[in-house]
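User: Predict the full complex structure for these chains.
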Amino acid sequence: MYRYDSYDQSIVNARVEEFRDQVQRRLTGALTEDQFKPLRLMNGLYLQLHAYMLRVAIPYGTLSGKQMRKLGEIAAKYDKGYGHFTTRQNLQYNWIKLADAPDILAELATVEMHAIQTSGNCIRNISSDQYAGVSADEVADPRPWAELLRQWSSFHPEFTYLPRKFKICVIASDDDRAAMRLHDIGLKLVERDGVIGAEVYAGGGMGRTPMVAPLIRDFVPEEEIVSYLEACLRVYNRYGRRDNKYKARIKILVHEIGVEDYKRQVEEEFAHMRTLGLNPPVEELARIRAFFANPAYEAGASEDIDRADPAFALWVDRQVAAHKQPGYAIVNISLKPLTGIPGDASAEQIDLVASLAEQYSLDELRVTHAQNLVLPHVKKADLYAIWQKLEEAGLAEANLDLITDIIACPGLDYCALANARSIPLAQKIAQRFADAERQAELGELKLKISGCINACGHHHAGHIGILGVDRKGVENFQLLLGGSGAEDASLGQITGPGFSEDGVVDAIEKVTDIYLAERTSGERFLDTYRRIGMKPFKEAIYG
Amino acid sequence: MKILTGNDLVTGDVIWWAGDGWSRQVGDSADVGDHGTDLARTEEAALRVVGAYVIDATVTDEGVRPAHIKDRIRALGPTVRPDLTLKPNDADAGNWVI
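Assistant: Here is the predicted structure of the two-chain assembly.
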Protein backbone atom coordinates (compact mmCIF):
# COMPACT_ATOMS: atom_id res chain seq x y z
CA MET A 1 0.00 0.00 0.00
CA TYR A 2 1.02 3.58 -0.57
CA ARG A 3 2.34 5.43 2.50
CA TYR A 4 2.33 9.18 2.87
CA ASP A 5 5.65 10.96 2.55
CA SER A 6 6.32 14.05 4.64
CA TYR A 7 4.80 16.27 1.95
CA ASP A 8 1.53 14.29 1.87
CA GLN A 9 1.30 14.36 5.65
CA SER A 10 2.11 18.02 6.00
CA ILE A 11 -0.54 19.19 3.51
CA VAL A 12 -3.19 17.01 5.13
CA ASN A 13 -2.24 18.25 8.61
CA ALA A 14 -2.25 21.84 7.40
CA ARG A 15 -5.71 21.39 5.90
CA VAL A 16 -7.02 20.04 9.24
CA GLU A 17 -5.80 23.11 11.10
CA GLU A 18 -7.14 25.43 8.41
CA PHE A 19 -10.55 23.83 8.69
CA ARG A 20 -10.42 23.95 12.49
CA ASP A 21 -10.03 27.70 12.23
CA GLN A 22 -12.84 27.95 9.67
CA VAL A 23 -15.21 25.97 11.90
CA GLN A 24 -14.33 28.14 14.86
CA ARG A 25 -15.06 31.26 12.85
CA ARG A 26 -18.39 29.80 11.77
CA LEU A 27 -19.35 28.94 15.34
CA THR A 28 -18.56 32.46 16.51
CA GLY A 29 -20.38 34.07 13.61
CA ALA A 30 -17.32 35.47 11.86
CA LEU A 31 -18.36 33.44 8.82
CA THR A 32 -21.91 33.28 7.50
CA GLU A 33 -23.29 29.99 6.20
CA ASP A 34 -22.97 31.31 2.64
CA GLN A 35 -19.28 31.92 3.27
CA PHE A 36 -18.73 28.70 5.19
CA LYS A 37 -20.64 26.25 3.00
CA PRO A 38 -18.06 26.02 0.17
CA LEU A 39 -15.30 25.64 2.78
CA ARG A 40 -16.98 22.77 4.60
CA LEU A 41 -17.85 21.06 1.32
CA MET A 42 -14.18 21.18 0.30
CA ASN A 43 -13.63 19.10 3.43
CA GLY A 44 -16.39 16.62 2.72
CA LEU A 45 -18.87 18.03 5.23
CA TYR A 46 -22.44 18.24 3.98
CA LEU A 47 -25.61 19.30 5.76
CA GLN A 48 -27.99 16.43 5.13
CA LEU A 49 -31.55 15.57 6.09
CA HIS A 50 -30.94 14.88 9.78
CA ALA A 51 -27.49 16.26 10.56
CA TYR A 52 -24.07 17.05 9.14
CA MET A 53 -22.67 14.22 7.03
CA LEU A 54 -18.94 13.64 6.57
CA ARG A 55 -17.71 11.80 3.49
CA VAL A 56 -14.26 10.27 3.96
CA ALA A 57 -12.11 9.46 0.93
CA ILE A 58 -10.85 5.91 0.57
CA PRO A 59 -8.35 6.20 -2.28
CA TYR A 60 -9.19 3.61 -4.94
CA GLY A 61 -11.04 1.72 -2.22
CA THR A 62 -7.90 0.48 -0.45
CA LEU A 63 -7.46 0.44 3.33
CA SER A 64 -5.03 -0.98 5.85
CA GLY A 65 -6.28 -2.64 9.02
CA LYS A 66 -5.19 0.39 11.02
CA GLN A 67 -7.15 2.75 8.76
CA MET A 68 -10.24 0.57 8.91
CA ARG A 69 -9.99 0.39 12.70
CA LYS A 70 -9.83 4.17 12.85
CA LEU A 71 -13.00 4.39 10.75
CA GLY A 72 -14.73 2.17 13.31
CA GLU A 73 -13.39 4.19 16.23
CA ILE A 74 -14.72 7.40 14.70
CA ALA A 75 -18.11 5.76 14.13
CA ALA A 76 -18.26 4.81 17.81
CA LYS A 77 -16.84 8.02 19.23
CA TYR A 78 -18.37 10.74 17.05
CA ASP A 79 -21.28 9.15 15.19
CA LYS A 80 -24.05 6.76 16.21
CA GLY A 81 -21.99 3.61 15.97
CA TYR A 82 -21.99 2.93 12.25
CA GLY A 83 -20.78 4.09 8.87
CA HIS A 84 -22.07 3.79 5.32
CA PHE A 85 -19.86 2.51 2.49
CA THR A 86 -20.81 4.24 -0.76
CA THR A 87 -20.87 3.49 -4.46
CA ARG A 88 -17.78 5.69 -4.80
CA GLN A 89 -15.77 3.37 -2.53
CA ASN A 90 -15.94 6.03 0.20
CA LEU A 91 -17.40 6.03 3.71
CA GLN A 92 -20.02 8.41 5.06
CA TYR A 93 -20.88 9.27 8.65
CA ASN A 94 -24.46 10.45 9.02
CA TRP A 95 -24.55 12.11 12.45
CA ILE A 96 -21.61 14.45 12.75
CA LYS A 97 -21.55 17.52 14.98
CA LEU A 98 -19.96 20.56 13.39
CA ALA A 99 -17.74 21.22 16.39
CA ASP A 100 -16.38 17.64 16.19
CA ALA A 101 -15.51 17.74 12.49
CA PRO A 102 -11.95 19.15 12.90
CA ASP A 103 -11.14 16.55 15.55
CA ILE A 104 -12.41 13.78 13.28
CA LEU A 105 -10.27 15.03 10.41
CA ALA A 106 -7.29 15.19 12.79
CA GLU A 107 -7.89 11.58 13.78
CA LEU A 108 -8.14 10.56 10.12
CA ALA A 109 -4.86 12.34 9.41
CA THR A 110 -3.09 10.14 11.95
CA VAL A 111 -3.80 7.16 9.67
CA GLU A 112 -3.09 9.00 6.40
CA MET A 113 -6.71 9.69 5.53
CA HIS A 114 -8.82 12.78 4.87
CA ALA A 115 -12.05 14.06 3.37
CA ILE A 116 -10.48 16.49 0.89
CA GLN A 117 -12.14 16.65 -2.54
CA THR A 118 -14.99 14.37 -1.56
CA SER A 119 -17.31 17.20 -2.59
CA GLY A 120 -17.17 20.21 -4.88
CA ASN A 121 -16.49 20.71 -8.56
CA CYS A 122 -13.09 19.10 -8.52
CA ILE A 123 -11.54 15.73 -9.30
CA ARG A 124 -13.00 13.34 -6.75
CA ASN A 125 -11.60 10.16 -5.24
CA ILE A 126 -10.03 7.98 -7.95
CA SER A 127 -11.85 4.67 -8.13
CA SER A 128 -10.53 1.31 -9.22
CA ASP A 129 -11.00 -2.43 -9.37
CA GLN A 130 -11.39 -4.03 -5.94
CA TYR A 131 -9.35 -6.98 -7.25
CA ALA A 132 -6.44 -4.72 -8.31
CA GLY A 133 -3.11 -6.39 -7.81
CA VAL A 134 -4.57 -9.81 -7.05
CA SER A 135 -6.51 -10.69 -10.17
CA ALA A 136 -4.82 -13.01 -12.62
CA ASP A 137 -6.42 -11.34 -15.63
CA GLU A 138 -4.98 -7.82 -15.27
CA VAL A 139 -2.17 -6.56 -17.51
CA ALA A 140 -0.72 -4.49 -14.68
CA ASP A 141 -1.69 -3.37 -11.20
CA PRO A 142 -3.86 -0.25 -11.71
CA ARG A 143 -3.21 1.11 -8.20
CA PRO A 144 0.10 2.87 -8.96
CA TRP A 145 -1.68 4.86 -11.67
CA ALA A 146 -4.62 5.53 -9.38
CA GLU A 147 -2.19 6.81 -6.74
CA LEU A 148 -0.31 8.90 -9.28
CA LEU A 149 -3.61 10.44 -10.38
CA ARG A 150 -4.56 11.01 -6.75
CA GLN A 151 -1.40 13.01 -6.24
CA TRP A 152 -1.79 14.85 -9.55
CA SER A 153 -5.40 15.77 -8.87
CA SER A 154 -5.03 16.72 -5.18
CA PHE A 155 -5.16 20.52 -4.92
CA HIS A 156 -4.51 20.78 -8.68
CA PRO A 157 -4.75 24.57 -9.05
CA GLU A 158 -6.18 24.47 -12.55
CA PHE A 159 -8.87 21.90 -11.75
CA THR A 160 -10.16 23.04 -8.37
CA TYR A 161 -13.13 24.88 -9.85
CA LEU A 162 -14.22 22.77 -12.80
CA PRO A 163 -17.65 23.29 -14.38
CA ARG A 164 -18.82 20.30 -12.33
CA LYS A 165 -17.53 17.38 -10.28
CA PHE A 166 -15.21 14.96 -12.07
CA LYS A 167 -14.82 11.23 -11.48
CA ILE A 168 -11.97 9.08 -12.80
CA CYS A 169 -11.64 5.31 -12.73
CA VAL A 170 -8.64 3.10 -13.54
CA ILE A 171 -8.89 -0.61 -14.31
CA ALA A 172 -6.53 -3.10 -15.90
CA SER A 173 -8.66 -6.15 -16.73
CA ASP A 174 -11.06 -7.09 -19.48
CA ASP A 175 -13.57 -7.80 -16.72
CA ASP A 176 -14.77 -4.39 -15.58
CA ARG A 177 -15.62 -4.60 -11.88
CA ALA A 178 -15.58 -0.84 -11.36
CA ALA A 179 -18.14 0.57 -13.86
CA MET A 180 -15.23 2.26 -15.64
CA ARG A 181 -17.21 3.50 -18.64
CA LEU A 182 -19.71 5.24 -16.40
CA HIS A 183 -17.10 7.72 -15.17
CA ASP A 184 -16.21 11.14 -16.53
CA ILE A 185 -12.94 9.56 -17.60
CA GLY A 186 -12.21 5.86 -17.56
CA LEU A 187 -8.78 4.40 -18.06
CA LYS A 188 -8.22 0.78 -18.99
CA LEU A 189 -4.60 -0.26 -18.84
CA VAL A 190 -3.61 -2.37 -21.81
CA GLU A 191 -0.42 -3.84 -23.21
CA ARG A 192 0.68 -3.21 -26.77
CA ASP A 193 3.88 -4.69 -28.16
CA GLY A 194 5.16 -5.17 -24.65
CA VAL A 195 4.45 -1.58 -23.63
CA ILE A 196 1.90 -0.66 -20.98
CA GLY A 197 -0.47 2.17 -21.79
CA ALA A 198 -4.12 3.05 -21.46
CA GLU A 199 -7.30 3.10 -23.45
CA VAL A 200 -9.02 6.36 -22.55
CA TYR A 201 -12.79 6.72 -22.37
CA ALA A 202 -14.34 10.16 -21.76
CA GLY A 203 -17.82 11.47 -21.19
CA GLY A 204 -19.51 8.71 -19.26
CA GLY A 205 -21.71 9.06 -16.22
CA MET A 206 -25.09 8.45 -14.71
CA GLY A 207 -27.29 11.14 -13.19
CA ARG A 208 -30.14 12.73 -15.11
CA THR A 209 -28.41 12.28 -18.47
CA PRO A 210 -26.73 8.88 -18.43
CA MET A 211 -24.01 8.14 -20.98
CA VAL A 212 -21.63 5.26 -21.59
CA ALA A 213 -18.23 6.84 -22.23
CA PRO A 214 -16.94 6.49 -25.78
CA LEU A 215 -13.34 5.52 -26.50
CA ILE A 216 -11.38 8.65 -27.35
CA ARG A 217 -7.89 7.16 -27.62
CA ASP A 218 -6.96 3.53 -27.94
CA PHE A 219 -3.46 3.86 -26.52
CA VAL A 220 -1.61 6.41 -24.44
CA PRO A 221 1.83 5.22 -23.32
CA GLU A 222 2.11 5.01 -19.55
CA GLU A 223 4.57 7.87 -19.23
CA GLU A 224 2.13 10.21 -21.00
CA ILE A 225 -1.11 9.28 -19.22
CA VAL A 226 -1.03 12.27 -16.89
CA SER A 227 -0.32 14.71 -19.70
CA TYR A 228 -3.12 13.24 -21.78
CA LEU A 229 -5.57 13.56 -18.88
CA GLU A 230 -4.38 17.12 -18.36
CA ALA A 231 -5.35 17.78 -21.98
CA CYS A 232 -8.76 16.12 -21.50
CA LEU A 233 -9.45 18.23 -18.42
CA ARG A 234 -8.23 21.44 -20.03
CA VAL A 235 -10.63 21.11 -22.95
CA TYR A 236 -13.47 20.34 -20.54
CA ASN A 237 -12.52 23.17 -18.20
CA ARG A 238 -12.45 25.61 -21.11
CA TYR A 239 -15.70 24.59 -22.83
CA GLY A 240 -17.78 22.77 -20.21
CA ARG A 241 -21.02 24.64 -19.56
CA ARG A 242 -20.98 26.74 -16.43
CA ASP A 243 -24.34 28.37 -17.16
CA ASN A 244 -26.41 25.30 -16.29
CA LYS A 245 -25.35 22.79 -13.62
CA TYR A 246 -27.48 20.12 -15.22
CA LYS A 247 -25.50 20.42 -18.44
CA ALA A 248 -22.09 21.00 -16.91
CA ARG A 249 -20.64 17.48 -16.80
CA ILE A 250 -18.10 16.45 -19.42
CA LYS A 251 -20.57 13.94 -20.87
CA ILE A 252 -22.74 16.83 -22.06
CA LEU A 253 -19.77 18.58 -23.67
CA VAL A 254 -18.65 15.43 -25.47
CA HIS A 255 -22.21 14.78 -26.60
CA GLU A 256 -22.90 18.34 -27.74
CA ILE A 257 -19.71 18.96 -29.71
CA GLY A 258 -19.39 15.32 -30.73
CA VAL A 259 -16.78 12.72 -29.90
CA GLU A 260 -14.64 13.51 -32.93
CA ASP A 261 -14.44 17.22 -32.22
CA TYR A 262 -13.68 16.60 -28.55
CA LYS A 263 -10.94 14.14 -29.52
CA ARG A 264 -9.49 16.62 -32.00
CA GLN A 265 -9.29 19.35 -29.41
CA VAL A 266 -7.77 17.03 -26.83
CA GLU A 267 -5.16 15.91 -29.36
CA GLU A 268 -4.27 19.54 -30.13
CA GLU A 269 -3.91 20.29 -26.44
CA PHE A 270 -1.95 17.07 -25.92
CA ALA A 271 0.44 18.01 -28.72
CA HIS A 272 0.98 21.31 -26.98
CA MET A 273 1.44 19.61 -23.60
CA ARG A 274 4.12 17.37 -25.09
CA THR A 275 6.24 20.43 -25.88
CA LEU A 276 6.17 21.48 -22.21
CA GLY A 277 7.78 18.40 -20.71
CA LEU A 278 5.11 18.03 -18.03
CA ASN A 279 5.04 14.26 -17.75
CA PRO A 280 5.71 13.19 -14.18
CA PRO A 281 9.25 11.90 -13.72
CA VAL A 282 9.59 8.19 -14.37
CA GLU A 283 11.29 7.88 -10.99
CA GLU A 284 8.12 9.07 -9.24
CA LEU A 285 6.00 6.39 -10.88
CA ALA A 286 8.67 3.86 -9.94
CA ARG A 287 8.64 5.14 -6.35
CA ILE A 288 4.87 4.78 -6.18
CA ARG A 289 4.91 1.39 -7.86
CA ALA A 290 7.28 0.07 -5.21
CA PHE A 291 4.55 0.55 -2.59
CA PHE A 292 2.35 -1.86 -4.51
CA ALA A 293 4.83 -4.69 -4.90
CA ASN A 294 3.46 -8.11 -4.09
CA PRO A 295 3.20 -8.66 -0.33
CA ALA A 296 5.07 -11.50 1.33
CA TYR A 297 2.97 -14.43 0.15
CA GLU A 298 3.73 -17.75 1.79
CA ALA A 299 5.32 -20.12 -0.67
CA GLY A 300 3.63 -23.47 -1.03
CA ALA A 301 0.39 -22.44 0.67
CA SER A 302 -2.16 -25.24 0.59
CA GLU A 303 -4.79 -25.34 -2.14
CA ASP A 304 -7.11 -27.45 0.02
CA ILE A 305 -10.41 -26.15 1.38
CA ASP A 306 -12.34 -28.35 3.78
CA ARG A 307 -15.90 -28.05 2.53
CA ALA A 308 -17.47 -30.37 5.11
CA ASP A 309 -19.70 -27.62 6.50
CA PRO A 310 -22.39 -27.03 3.84
CA ALA A 311 -23.06 -23.42 4.87
CA PHE A 312 -19.36 -22.68 4.58
CA ALA A 313 -19.17 -24.43 1.22
CA LEU A 314 -22.07 -22.31 -0.07
CA TRP A 315 -20.30 -19.16 1.11
CA VAL A 316 -17.03 -20.21 -0.55
CA ASP A 317 -18.76 -20.87 -3.84
CA ARG A 318 -20.42 -17.46 -3.83
CA GLN A 319 -18.05 -15.09 -2.03
CA VAL A 320 -14.54 -16.36 -2.78
CA ALA A 321 -12.76 -15.46 -6.02
CA ALA A 322 -9.59 -16.75 -7.65
CA HIS A 323 -6.29 -15.14 -6.65
CA LYS A 324 -3.21 -14.89 -8.82
CA GLN A 325 -1.08 -16.46 -6.08
CA PRO A 326 -1.33 -20.25 -5.61
CA GLY A 327 -2.84 -21.16 -2.24
CA TYR A 328 -4.51 -17.76 -1.83
CA ALA A 329 -8.02 -16.46 -2.46
CA ILE A 330 -9.96 -13.21 -2.61
CA VAL A 331 -12.75 -12.98 -0.02
CA ASN A 332 -15.80 -10.83 -0.69
CA ILE A 333 -17.62 -9.75 2.47
CA SER A 334 -21.27 -8.97 1.88
CA LEU A 335 -22.66 -5.80 3.44
CA LYS A 336 -26.11 -6.88 2.26
CA PRO A 337 -27.67 -8.94 5.04
CA LEU A 338 -31.27 -9.69 4.13
CA THR A 339 -32.77 -7.43 6.78
CA GLY A 340 -29.95 -4.93 6.85
CA ILE A 341 -29.08 -1.67 5.12
CA PRO A 342 -26.94 -1.95 1.98
CA GLY A 343 -23.45 -0.62 2.68
CA ASP A 344 -23.92 0.01 6.40
CA ALA A 345 -21.50 -1.50 8.90
CA SER A 346 -21.48 -1.07 12.65
CA ALA A 347 -18.39 0.13 14.48
CA GLU A 348 -17.96 -3.41 15.81
CA GLN A 349 -18.20 -4.92 12.32
CA ILE A 350 -15.71 -2.39 10.98
CA ASP A 351 -13.34 -3.25 13.81
CA LEU A 352 -13.75 -6.97 13.14
CA VAL A 353 -12.95 -6.59 9.45
CA ALA A 354 -9.89 -4.51 10.39
CA SER A 355 -8.72 -7.37 12.59
CA LEU A 356 -9.41 -9.95 9.88
CA ALA A 357 -7.40 -7.87 7.41
CA GLU A 358 -4.48 -7.69 9.83
CA GLN A 359 -4.61 -11.33 10.83
CA TYR A 360 -5.50 -13.01 7.55
CA SER A 361 -5.10 -10.62 4.60
CA LEU A 362 -1.61 -9.18 4.90
CA ASP A 363 -3.05 -6.03 6.49
CA GLU A 364 -5.10 -4.95 3.52
CA LEU A 365 -8.76 -4.68 2.53
CA ARG A 366 -10.82 -3.08 -0.19
CA VAL A 367 -14.16 -1.32 -0.55
CA THR A 368 -16.18 -2.05 -3.70
CA HIS A 369 -18.47 0.25 -5.65
CA ALA A 370 -21.17 -2.35 -5.00
CA GLN A 371 -20.94 -1.43 -1.29
CA ASN A 372 -19.21 -4.60 -0.18
CA LEU A 373 -15.78 -5.28 1.33
CA VAL A 374 -12.92 -7.45 0.12
CA LEU A 375 -10.06 -9.21 1.87
CA PRO A 376 -7.64 -9.48 -1.04
CA HIS A 377 -4.90 -11.79 0.25
CA VAL A 378 -6.35 -14.74 2.15
CA LYS A 379 -4.73 -18.14 2.42
CA LYS A 380 -7.23 -20.81 1.46
CA ALA A 381 -6.36 -22.62 4.68
CA ASP A 382 -7.72 -19.63 6.63
CA LEU A 383 -11.07 -19.37 4.86
CA TYR A 384 -13.02 -21.40 7.39
CA ALA A 385 -11.74 -19.41 10.36
CA ILE A 386 -12.65 -16.17 8.59
CA TRP A 387 -16.11 -17.43 7.69
CA GLN A 388 -16.79 -18.41 11.30
CA LYS A 389 -15.91 -14.93 12.51
CA LEU A 390 -17.96 -13.27 9.79
CA GLU A 391 -20.89 -15.54 10.61
CA GLU A 392 -20.79 -14.48 14.27
CA ALA A 393 -20.79 -10.83 13.21
CA GLY A 394 -23.67 -11.11 10.71
CA LEU A 395 -21.34 -10.62 7.75
CA ALA A 396 -21.45 -14.06 6.14
CA GLU A 397 -24.31 -13.55 3.69
CA ALA A 398 -23.57 -15.55 0.52
CA ASN A 399 -25.18 -13.33 -2.11
CA LEU A 400 -22.44 -11.71 -4.19
CA ASP A 401 -23.94 -10.52 -7.51
CA LEU A 402 -27.28 -12.17 -6.72
CA ILE A 403 -30.62 -10.36 -6.62
CA THR A 404 -30.27 -9.55 -2.91
CA ASP A 405 -26.80 -8.01 -3.35
CA ILE A 406 -28.57 -4.72 -3.94
CA ILE A 407 -26.84 -1.41 -4.45
CA ALA A 408 -28.95 1.29 -2.81
CA CYS A 409 -28.23 4.93 -2.17
CA PRO A 410 -29.14 6.36 1.26
CA GLY A 411 -32.34 7.70 -0.29
CA LEU A 412 -34.90 9.81 1.48
CA ASP A 413 -34.10 8.25 4.82
CA TYR A 414 -30.89 10.28 4.93
CA CYS A 415 -30.36 12.38 1.80
CA ALA A 416 -31.61 15.94 1.34
CA LEU A 417 -31.70 15.52 -2.45
CA ALA A 418 -33.69 12.29 -2.54
CA ASN A 419 -37.31 11.98 -3.65
CA ALA A 420 -38.00 8.49 -2.36
CA ARG A 421 -36.63 5.98 0.12
CA SER A 422 -34.27 3.38 -1.36
CA ILE A 423 -33.40 1.34 1.70
CA PRO A 424 -36.87 0.09 2.75
CA LEU A 425 -37.46 -0.97 -0.85
CA ALA A 426 -34.14 -2.82 -0.94
CA GLN A 427 -35.15 -4.60 2.26
CA LYS A 428 -38.55 -5.60 0.85
CA ILE A 429 -36.97 -6.98 -2.31
CA ALA A 430 -34.33 -8.85 -0.30
CA GLN A 431 -37.03 -10.41 1.86
CA ARG A 432 -39.19 -11.36 -1.15
CA PHE A 433 -36.21 -13.18 -2.70
CA ALA A 434 -34.66 -14.35 0.57
CA ASP A 435 -34.73 -18.04 -0.29
CA ALA A 436 -31.13 -19.02 -1.08
CA GLU A 437 -32.11 -21.62 -3.67
CA ARG A 438 -34.32 -19.13 -5.46
CA GLN A 439 -31.50 -16.59 -5.56
CA ALA A 440 -29.09 -19.17 -6.90
CA GLU A 441 -31.63 -20.23 -9.51
CA LEU A 442 -31.86 -16.64 -10.75
CA GLY A 443 -28.06 -16.40 -10.88
CA GLU A 444 -26.21 -13.16 -11.56
CA LEU A 445 -28.75 -10.39 -11.33
CA LYS A 446 -27.56 -6.92 -10.39
CA LEU A 447 -30.31 -4.82 -8.88
CA LYS A 448 -29.61 -1.15 -8.19
CA ILE A 449 -31.81 1.49 -6.57
CA SER A 450 -31.53 5.27 -6.60
CA GLY A 451 -33.77 7.56 -4.59
CA CYS A 452 -33.52 10.36 -7.13
CA ILE A 453 -32.36 11.25 -10.61
CA ASN A 454 -28.79 11.88 -9.41
CA ALA A 455 -28.34 8.10 -9.59
CA CYS A 456 -25.96 7.50 -6.67
CA GLY A 457 -27.50 4.01 -6.57
CA HIS A 458 -26.43 3.39 -10.19
CA HIS A 459 -29.96 2.45 -11.30
CA HIS A 460 -29.10 3.08 -14.96
CA ALA A 461 -26.48 0.32 -14.73
CA GLY A 462 -28.63 -2.29 -13.01
CA HIS A 463 -29.73 -5.42 -14.84
CA ILE A 464 -32.82 -4.33 -12.97
CA GLY A 465 -32.78 -0.69 -11.94
CA ILE A 466 -35.20 1.28 -9.83
CA LEU A 467 -35.54 5.05 -9.71
CA GLY A 468 -37.51 6.66 -6.90
CA VAL A 469 -39.48 9.75 -7.85
CA ASP A 470 -41.83 12.14 -6.10
CA ARG A 471 -45.33 12.01 -7.54
CA LYS A 472 -47.31 14.77 -5.85
CA GLY A 473 -45.67 14.11 -2.52
CA VAL A 474 -45.98 10.33 -2.74
CA GLU A 475 -43.07 7.97 -3.37
CA ASN A 476 -43.22 6.32 -6.77
CA PHE A 477 -40.77 3.93 -8.38
CA GLN A 478 -39.82 3.59 -12.03
CA LEU A 479 -38.50 0.24 -13.18
CA LEU A 480 -35.63 -0.09 -15.66
CA LEU A 481 -34.29 -3.21 -17.35
CA GLY A 482 -31.12 -4.05 -19.23
CA GLY A 483 -28.44 -1.85 -17.73
CA SER A 484 -24.89 -2.95 -17.01
CA GLY A 485 -21.86 -1.31 -15.45
CA ALA A 486 -19.53 -4.11 -16.48
CA GLU A 487 -17.41 -4.58 -19.60
CA ASP A 488 -20.66 -4.94 -21.56
CA ALA A 489 -21.80 -1.53 -20.31
CA SER A 490 -25.31 -0.44 -21.25
CA LEU A 491 -28.06 1.80 -19.92
CA GLY A 492 -31.33 0.40 -18.63
CA GLN A 493 -34.61 1.28 -20.31
CA ILE A 494 -37.72 2.33 -18.39
CA THR A 495 -40.48 -0.27 -18.57
CA GLY A 496 -43.38 2.18 -18.37
CA PRO A 497 -45.51 3.82 -15.68
CA GLY A 498 -44.13 3.71 -12.15
CA PHE A 499 -45.26 1.73 -9.13
CA SER A 500 -45.86 2.00 -5.42
CA GLU A 501 -43.24 0.41 -3.17
CA ASP A 502 -45.13 -2.88 -2.94
CA GLY A 503 -46.07 -2.67 -6.61
CA VAL A 504 -42.50 -2.52 -7.81
CA VAL A 505 -41.59 -5.58 -5.71
CA ASP A 506 -44.42 -7.47 -7.43
CA ALA A 507 -43.27 -6.20 -10.82
CA ILE A 508 -39.73 -7.45 -10.18
CA GLU A 509 -41.11 -10.87 -9.36
CA LYS A 510 -43.00 -10.92 -12.66
CA VAL A 511 -39.84 -9.87 -14.48
CA THR A 512 -37.84 -12.69 -12.92
CA ASP A 513 -40.62 -15.16 -13.74
CA ILE A 514 -40.38 -14.19 -17.41
CA TYR A 515 -36.63 -14.61 -17.28
CA LEU A 516 -36.91 -18.10 -15.81
CA ALA A 517 -39.48 -19.07 -18.42
CA GLU A 518 -37.60 -17.66 -21.41
CA ARG A 519 -33.93 -18.21 -20.67
CA THR A 520 -31.82 -20.64 -22.57
CA SER A 521 -29.02 -22.66 -21.04
CA GLY A 522 -26.33 -20.52 -19.48
CA GLU A 523 -28.10 -17.22 -20.03
CA ARG A 524 -27.96 -14.60 -17.30
CA PHE A 525 -30.96 -12.34 -16.80
CA LEU A 526 -29.20 -9.63 -18.79
CA ASP A 527 -28.49 -12.01 -21.68
CA THR A 528 -32.12 -13.07 -21.89
CA TYR A 529 -33.31 -9.46 -21.78
CA ARG A 530 -30.96 -8.52 -24.58
CA ARG A 531 -32.12 -11.47 -26.68
CA ILE A 532 -35.87 -11.18 -26.25
CA GLY A 533 -36.17 -7.45 -25.64
CA MET A 534 -38.46 -5.42 -23.42
CA LYS A 535 -41.83 -6.52 -24.84
CA PRO A 536 -42.40 -9.82 -22.96
CA PHE A 537 -41.40 -8.18 -19.69
CA LYS A 538 -43.73 -5.24 -20.26
CA GLU A 539 -46.60 -7.56 -21.08
CA ALA A 540 -46.03 -9.48 -17.86
CA ILE A 541 -45.80 -6.34 -15.76
CA TYR A 542 -48.61 -4.28 -17.20
CA GLY A 543 -50.83 -7.00 -18.67
CA MET B 1 -50.40 26.22 9.10
CA LYS B 2 -46.87 27.34 8.35
CA ILE B 3 -44.05 26.04 10.51
CA LEU B 4 -40.33 26.78 10.55
CA THR B 5 -37.63 24.14 10.59
CA GLY B 6 -33.87 23.92 10.15
CA ASN B 7 -30.81 22.33 11.72
CA ASP B 8 -29.05 23.27 14.93
CA LEU B 9 -25.87 25.03 13.84
CA VAL B 10 -23.60 23.21 16.28
CA THR B 11 -25.08 19.71 16.47
CA GLY B 12 -26.86 19.54 13.11
CA ASP B 13 -29.97 18.21 14.85
CA VAL B 14 -33.31 18.81 13.12
CA ILE B 15 -35.15 21.53 15.04
CA TRP B 16 -38.58 23.15 14.88
CA TRP B 17 -39.59 26.67 15.90
CA ALA B 18 -41.80 26.38 18.99
CA GLY B 19 -42.78 30.03 19.39
CA ASP B 20 -40.25 30.98 22.04
CA GLY B 21 -37.30 28.91 20.95
CA TRP B 22 -36.36 25.73 19.12
CA SER B 23 -37.52 22.19 19.86
CA ARG B 24 -36.42 18.78 18.60
CA GLN B 25 -40.06 17.65 18.61
CA VAL B 26 -42.15 18.55 15.57
CA GLY B 27 -45.18 18.41 17.86
CA ASP B 28 -43.98 21.57 19.57
CA SER B 29 -44.09 23.55 16.32
CA ALA B 30 -45.81 26.92 16.35
CA ASP B 31 -47.65 28.51 13.46
CA VAL B 32 -45.33 31.21 12.11
CA GLY B 33 -47.93 32.67 9.76
CA ASP B 34 -46.29 35.13 7.38
CA HIS B 35 -43.30 35.77 9.63
CA GLY B 36 -41.32 32.62 8.92
CA THR B 37 -38.81 34.11 6.51
CA ASP B 38 -37.99 37.04 8.79
CA LEU B 39 -37.77 34.72 11.77
CA ALA B 40 -35.43 32.39 9.90
CA ARG B 41 -33.16 35.29 9.04
CA THR B 42 -33.07 36.49 12.64
CA GLU B 43 -32.43 33.05 14.10
CA GLU B 44 -29.71 32.27 11.56
CA ALA B 45 -27.99 35.54 12.37
CA ALA B 46 -28.15 34.58 16.05
CA LEU B 47 -26.32 31.31 15.21
CA ARG B 48 -29.13 29.19 16.60
CA VAL B 49 -30.10 27.51 13.32
CA VAL B 50 -28.74 26.80 9.85
CA GLY B 51 -30.67 26.17 6.65
CA ALA B 52 -33.99 27.32 8.10
CA TYR B 53 -37.04 27.16 5.85
CA VAL B 54 -40.82 27.42 6.10
CA ILE B 55 -43.07 24.45 5.32
CA ASP B 56 -46.75 23.68 5.23
CA ALA B 57 -48.16 21.48 7.96
CA THR B 58 -51.49 20.44 9.42
CA VAL B 59 -52.69 19.72 12.92
CA THR B 60 -53.99 16.16 13.25
CA ASP B 61 -55.09 13.96 16.13
CA GLU B 62 -51.47 12.87 16.37
CA GLY B 63 -50.18 16.43 16.47
CA VAL B 64 -48.44 18.60 13.90
CA ARG B 65 -47.86 16.79 10.63
CA PRO B 66 -45.58 18.31 7.93
CA ALA B 67 -47.21 18.27 4.51
CA HIS B 68 -44.33 16.67 2.65
CA ILE B 69 -42.87 13.22 3.29
CA LYS B 70 -39.32 14.61 3.33
CA ASP B 71 -40.13 16.80 6.31
CA ARG B 72 -42.00 14.00 8.04
CA ILE B 73 -38.84 11.87 7.77
CA ARG B 74 -36.81 14.81 9.09
CA ALA B 75 -39.25 15.01 11.98
CA LEU B 76 -39.13 11.31 12.84
CA GLY B 77 -35.64 10.18 11.85
CA PRO B 78 -34.57 7.48 9.36
CA THR B 79 -37.43 5.02 8.96
CA VAL B 80 -34.97 2.14 8.58
CA ARG B 81 -33.38 2.79 11.95
CA PRO B 82 -36.25 3.00 14.45
CA ASP B 83 -33.68 2.93 17.25
CA LEU B 84 -32.45 6.33 16.07
CA THR B 85 -35.85 7.97 15.67
CA LEU B 86 -37.83 10.10 18.09
CA LYS B 87 -40.00 7.05 18.77
CA PRO B 88 -37.52 4.19 19.22
CA ASN B 89 -40.01 1.97 21.01
CA ASP B 90 -42.78 2.34 18.44
CA ALA B 91 -42.36 -0.34 15.78
CA ASP B 92 -45.00 1.32 13.63
CA ALA B 93 -43.54 4.81 13.86
CA GLY B 94 -42.26 4.60 10.30
CA ASN B 95 -45.80 4.37 9.01
CA TRP B 96 -46.39 7.92 10.22
CA VAL B 97 -44.25 9.32 7.42
CA ILE B 98 -46.11 7.59 4.59
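The mean pLDDT of chain B is 96.
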